[in-house]
Amino acid sequence: MAKVYYNGDVNEGFLTGKTVAIIGYGSQGHAHALNLKESGVDVIVGLRQGKSWEKAKEDGFNVFPVQEAAEKAEVIMVLLPDEQQPEVYKASIESELTPGKALVFAHGFNIHFNQIVPPSDVDVFLVAPKGPGHLVRRTFTEGAGVPGLIAVYQDATGEAKDIALAYAKQIGAARAGVLETTFKEETETDLFGEQAVLCGGTSALVKAGFETLVEAGYQPEIAYFECLHELKLIVDLMYEGGLEYMRYSISDTAQWGDFQAGPRIVTDETKKEMKAILDDIQKGKFAKGWILENKLNRPEYNAINTAEANHPLEVVGRELREMMPFVKQSKQKKGAVNHGQG
Ligand SMILES: NC(=O)C1=CN([C@@H]2O[C@H](COP(=O)(O)OP(=O)(O)OC[C@H]3O[C@@H](n4cnc5c(N)ncnc54)[C@H](OP(=O)(O)O)[C@@H]3O)[C@@H](O)[C@H]2O)C=CC1
Ligand SMILES: CC[C@](O)(C(C)=O)C(=O)O
Ligand SMILES: [Mg+2]
Ligand SMILES: [Mg+2]
Q: Interface pTM (ipTM) of the complex?
């Protein structure tokens, strides 16, 4: 079994006396900055002028233009959107990477796919929470945490792994468990997970279920509750106790249906497609396409995004959630709204 690091295994002292610059104050950025600050770490934030700048200031941070923040810090955590990172790195971070500093990421994309090539005399590592930033923040405030991965790409100081572990501990990840990996493994598994299972696979499953019921004449509101709203309640049980606990809680009728229907939905064909998706990731085909899509100003991304927002599932869901004030809406992932509450 792999070594899993918990709080007691980690010496947070490796961050003592170091200033950490959090570059970006979005989903991950606000969570890392606030969790580190509340763990006693000296944190500054690097941004461009705009909404996030104001939000980070409201949250009590000293905020600087990216280059100034990178200049002031020993540990520079890059929490900008992946596609923005290479340009900002070239313009404002590279020049501030004096020997012995640490360049840090929450995802290995730009290092693994050679979009950022750091100098050899700095530490380069990643601390990648295995969960959305708003949950990294929310769980931390609740005394819990989201698991994380660390990986060292360059160890110029001889302390890169210890600093990575200390960072992971101070954002709360070692409360849940931290594993060591490589940039390659983190990048490929993260892309696969979000595409095939967590985001792509789940969204497609929910939509197909909703459409099947509505096309058969059932009420959209019932289809929404059945295929989307209740998914959270079912996944919560899996989170707490695996498939076993979910199946313990559901009826035996549902469990028999699960055994019979599941393999008809996720078939050998589906698994073959999953393997093809993984292959595209491993060979760099997905990365190449995403980089190109951004160079072209995201024509396909924007068109799909608009169509998805207008899908009947989303329309009916918005109306139903209005009547459920207890369902939190962390509305603007990218907009630094409601970051404090997750
Ligand atoms: N989202 C998640 O939960 C997870 C993300 N990651 C990784 O974490 C990293 C950050 O992702 P995520 O948190 O989603 O990013 P976001 O899209 O939430 O980041 C947006 C932030 O970046 C700022 N920003 C964007 N462009 C620039 C720029 N050119 N110059 C300065 N600031 C800029 C925005 O400021 P402004 O308000 O001015 O636009 C905002 O503060 C990525 O590497 C991602 O793969 C890893 C695990 C999970
Ligand atoms: C599942 C999506 C994710 O990988 C994440 C929240 O971990 C991301 O890139 O946002
Ligand atoms: Mg992820
Ligand atoms: Mg990801």
A: 0.99
